Amino acid sequence: MISLEQRSIAHFDLDCFFVSAECLKDQRLKGRPLLVGGMSDRGVVAACSYEARKFGIHSAMPMKTALRLCPEAIVRTGDHDFYSELSQQVTGLIAEEAPLYEKSSIDEFYLDLTGMDKYFGSLKWTSELRRKIMKMTGLPISFGLASNKMVSKVATNEAKPNGQMAVEFGGEKSFLAPMPVDKLPMVGKETAARLRQRGVETVKTLSEIPPALLEAWMGKNGIAIWNKANGIDETPVVPYHEQKSIGTENTFSTDTIDLKFLHRELVRMTEKVGFELRQQDKLAGCVTVKLRYSDFNTVTKQAVIPYTGSDHILLQKVTEIFNRLYDRRQLVRLVGVRLSHLVGGNYQISMFDDTEEMISLYQAIDSIKSQFGWQYIMRGATACT
Description:
By secondary structure, this protein is α+β, with helices and mostly antiparallel strands. It has three domains: about 5-170, Reverse transcriptase/Diguanylate cyclase domain (Alpha-Beta Plaits); about 175-230, DNA polymerase, domain 1 (Orthogonal Bundle); about 245-380, DNA polymerase, Y-family, little finger domain (Dna Ligase, domain 1, 2-Layer Sandwich), CATH 3.30.1490.100. The chain is built from 14 helices and 13 strands. The chain has helices spanning about 15-25, 50-55, 65-70, 80-95, 120-135, 150-160, 170-175, 190-195, 205, 210-220, 220-230, 260-280, 310-325, 355-370, and strands at about 10-15, 35, 45-50, 75, 100-105, 110, 140-145, 165, 245-255, 280-295, 300-310, 330-340, 345. The strands form three sheets. Strands 5-6-1-7-8 form a five-stranded mixed beta sheet. A hairpin with a 4-residue loop joins strand 10 and strand 11.
C-alpha cells in the first residue's frame, strides 16, 4: 500500500469557464470585459473575464453594480446546455487518460497520479494531458501538481491564467509560507479579518501558532486551518463513478389514478431531493423518474440536463418526464425521483437566470428546512385540495 506522503495529486481548473465558453462561440469577445449572468434589473454576475475584474467586478455581484463599474462591459446571459456539454467533453478526455479522477465541480477535477513517476513522470504526463484538453476543446485550463489536494488547488490558483505549477514533495510549507492567509481554502474574508486582527498576515505565521490556540480562536475549524497552513491534507481523491445519486420514492397505501395527487407527490419528492442536493453543495446533471403500476410492472425514464440545483428547474423536468412515462392510464402503486451525475457547485450555475431575490429565497428556505426539517416549508402545490 502506498503511503499518503508519497501521493501525486493534480488539480485541473478550467479558467473562467463560462467566459471562455462564450469566447469559443464568439472570438470577438476575447480580451474584452465580459460578464456572464442575469440580464434583468435584479440579475447577478455568474462569471466575469479577467479584463472585467480589473474594474473590481466579481461573481455574485448585482449586474447593475457591475455595469456601473464598467459601462462598456459586454453581457451574455449564459448557456446551460453548452457549458454542460463542454464540461462533459473535458470529463471524457480526463476519463480516457487518468487512472483515478474526481470531478469536484462543473469545471474542476482532481487526478490521483500516485505511482506514475515510475513509468511516465507525473509532471510530463499532466502537461501532455493539459495540452490535449486545450487542443480538443479550445478551452484554457490550468493545473497544479503536488502531494495533496489542498496544495495542488492553491498551486492551480497561482498558475492562473492558463498556466501550470508543480510543488515538489517536501516543499509544501515553503511554497505556502509567504502567501496571505486568505490564499488558503477555508479561510474566507471573515476568517482572514479575524486572523489579521491578531497580527496573523501570512501562512507562515499561521503555521507557527500552536494548534490548541487556533482551536481556542476558531473552534474545531482551527485544527483544520492549522493543517492547511502546514501543507497537510490527507483527503483522498474520490473516484467520479462512485459519486452517489440522491433519490426518494413512495409506495402508496392505496393504488391511485389521481393525477393531481401524483403531481403533488412529485413536487414533494423533488423538493426533498433538491434540498438534499443543495445541502451537499452539489449540482445534478441527470433526472430519473420511476413509476410502478398496480400490476408491479415498473418503468423508469431519465433525462440528462444542464447542471442545476434549483427546484423550479428540476420540477419542470420531473413533470415533463412523468408526463411522457405515464402512458398506460392504470392504477399507480409507486413513484420515485432520483438525481444523479452529481458535481460540486450549488448556486453558481443558477446565477445565469436567477435574480438576487430568487437566490436569497432558496437560501432562506433551505435555512428554515435545515433548522426544522425539509417538510416544514413546501410549495403550495403539495397542499391537499
